[in-house]
Write a structure and sequence with these properties.
The protein has 8 helices and 7 strands. The chain is an alpha/beta fold. The chain is globular and about 40 Å long. The N and C termini lie far apart (about 40 Å).
Length: about 210
């Protein structure tokens, strides 16, 4: 949970982290492996603000982990919107459901436990916004799965797209996660139907808009 002086300065000059998320972030670091996967204060406030700006009616999240990002997205959704979040780790089911049940947006959040590539095709309708933060090896497959169902003018937010800066290092086939990220980035960059920008935030956050 260490941070740099610059990170401390940034967090002191942005909207405060809601107390329930501060507790969730702390608990994630105390009780879970790989706590770095938790979005945290800065990225969480960005997710909340982007969601508020997009004002989506239907949101899909791939990769819930401990629920921090889902809570931020739900916080920014307009009234009557719905969030479907998919987590592959069945051991997280009870913890995540309890977290969502205690939220003021409980009725708007649906948790799905299992493989996103099996679950998402069974969910009806289009998506106005999708947050991808699941298995990096499968990012290209997620993109192919989502694009036909992404509303025109809809958004995809993809996390970890700079992969600790390794995207600019000499290619290696020993890291399948990096290979997945590289292929995803190539596919997005070469698709003329998508408007895109990569933010060098944490591990890289790509904002993608499907052109009308």
């Amino acid at each position: 949970m260490t941070s740099t002086p610059l990170e401390d300065y940034i967090e002191a000059h942005i909207s405060p982290e809601p107390p329930r998320l501060t507790r969730l972030y702390r608990d994630t670091h105390l009780h879970h492996l790989y706590p770095r996967m938790c979005s945290g204060h800065l990225q969480g406030r960005i997710l909340k603000m982007l969601t508020t700006m997009i004002a989506p009616k239907r949101v899909l999240e791939l990769g819930a982990f401990t629920g921090y990002s889902a809570m931020c997205i739900a916080e920014g959704m307009p009234e009557g919107a719905e969030l479907h979040t998919v987590e592959i780790d069945d051991e997280m089911a009870d913890e995540l459901q309890a977290l969502f049940d205690e939220s003021s947006r409980a009725s708007d959040i649906t948790l799905h436990i299992g493989d996103a590539e099996e679950i998402v095709p069974q969910l009806p309708g289009e998506w106005d916004m999708v947050f991808i933060d699941a298995n990096k090896r499968r990012y290209p497959a997620y993109l192919n799965m989502i694009l036909p169902r992404l509303a025109k003018g809809g958004y995809i937010l993809a996390d970890n797209t700079l992969w600790d800066g390794k995207v600019i290092e000499a290619p290696t086939h020993s890291d399948p996660q990096l290979q997945g990220i590289l292929e995803f980035n190539r596919m997005v960059a070469e698709d003329p139907t998508l408007e895109k920008v990569i933010l060098p935030l944490r591990d890289g956050l790509t904002l993608i808009r499907r052109l009308p």
